[in-house]
Design brief:
Elements: E1 7-20, E2 23-36, E3 40-44, H1 51-58, E4 66-71, E5 74-75, H2 81-91, E6 92-96, H3 107-117, H4 123-135, H5 151-163, E7 169-173, H6 181-198, E8 201-205, H7 209-213, E9 217-222, E10 225-231
Parallel strand pairs: 3-8, 3-9, 6-7, 7-8
Antiparallel strand pairs: 1-2, 1-4, 4-5, 9-10
Helix pairs in contact: 3-4, 3-5, 4-5, 5-6
Bound molecules: adenosine-5'-triphosphate.
GO molecular function: ATP binding; ATP hydrolysis activity; transmembrane transporter activity
InterPro entries: AAA+_ATPase (IPR003593), ABC_transporter-like_ATP-bd (IPR003439), ABC_transporter-like_CS (IPR017871), ABC_transpr_LolD-like (IPR015854), MacB-like_ATP-bd (IPR017911), P-loop_NTPase (IPR027417)
Family: Belongs to the ABC transporter superfamily. Macrolide exporter (TC 3.A.1.122) family.
Length: 232
């Protein structure tokens, strides 16, 4: 058994069922796992096996049917929507397949948003935005709008936005799904190297074998369950 004190994320017997008309869909069944600070963990498995459901539960974007989640040893299973918003502002960054940048804002303004939402202002915001944009090699595009960037560049900006508030945990759901293989490999290498510099953990949901290969370990999922774990 792993020492709970070392765990950034602890998931215990987590299950999620959805009602679809008269039937109950069991999306996640009895999942237990722990993630340590700084670890890069990938989840792979066939479509519909519950990967996004698991990530959404850990990020508070959905609620479990049963089981428990703790982040930094804080029980968050029954956190309210407001508490989850605060937790995400403090501790969690999320990267989606579809980038979700705000088209009317510049790259710099998009990346600054999580800091502004926390009430931060002034030179410290500009400095931090510059630091993370440089880390994803997008500092020269600070004044561009998302529509002027390639998909890979937009995803690099989305990663900068996800780490700007120094989260302990970054959740990424199919972040290379809209990219060609070269851009995808670039994004995966950022997920590999950024934790070494910024110290966060990464949980990555992917269909890509090569993306999963970059992780410290890979959980294979099937029918809502974790079936085995491969360490690299
Ligand atoms: N909001 C919902 N309402 C009903 N069923 C849902 C809902 N969200 C997910 N499901 C079902 O739960 C199961 C797991 O879905 P999930 O999206 O977690 O799988 P996945 O492994 O991420 O799939 P993919 O690789 O295709 O994204 C699927 O059968 C899906 O149809």
């Amino acid at each position: 058994m792993q020492d709970p004190a070392n765990m950034l994320v602890q998931v215990q017997n987590l299950s999620k069922a959805y009602r679809r008309g008269q039937t109950i869909v069991s999306a996640l069944q009895d999942v237990t796992l722990g993630v340590k600070a700084g670890e890069f963990c990938a989840f792979v498995g066939p479509s519909g096996c519950g990967k996004s459901t698991l990530l959404n539960l850990i990020g508070g974007l959905d609620r479990p049917t049963s089981g428990a989640i703790a982040i930094e040893n804080r029980p968050v299973t029954h956190a309210s929507a407001t508490e989850w918003t605060r937790l995400r502002r403090e501790l969690i960054g999320i990267v989606f397949q579809a980038f979700h940048l705000i088209p009317g804002l510049t790259v710099g303004e998009n990346v600054a948003l999580p800091l502004l939402l926390r009430g931060e202002r002034g030179a410290a915001v500009a400095e931090r935005v510059n630091e993370v944009l440089a880390a994803v090699r997008m500092d020269r595009r600070r004044s561009h709008r998302p529509g002027e960037l390639s998909g890979g560049e937009q995803q690099r900006v989305a990663i900068a936005r996800a780490i700007v508030h120094r989260p302990r945990l970054v959740l990424a759901d199919e972040p290379t799904g809209n990219l060609d293989s070269k851009q995808g490999a670039d994004i995966v290498s950022l997920f590999r190297t950024l934790p070494q510099r910024f110290g966060h953990s990464v949980l990555l949901v992917t269909h890509s074998e090569s993306a999963a290969d970059a992780a410290d370990y890979v959980w294979h999922m099937r029918d809502g369950r974790l079936v085995n774990c491969v360490r690299h």
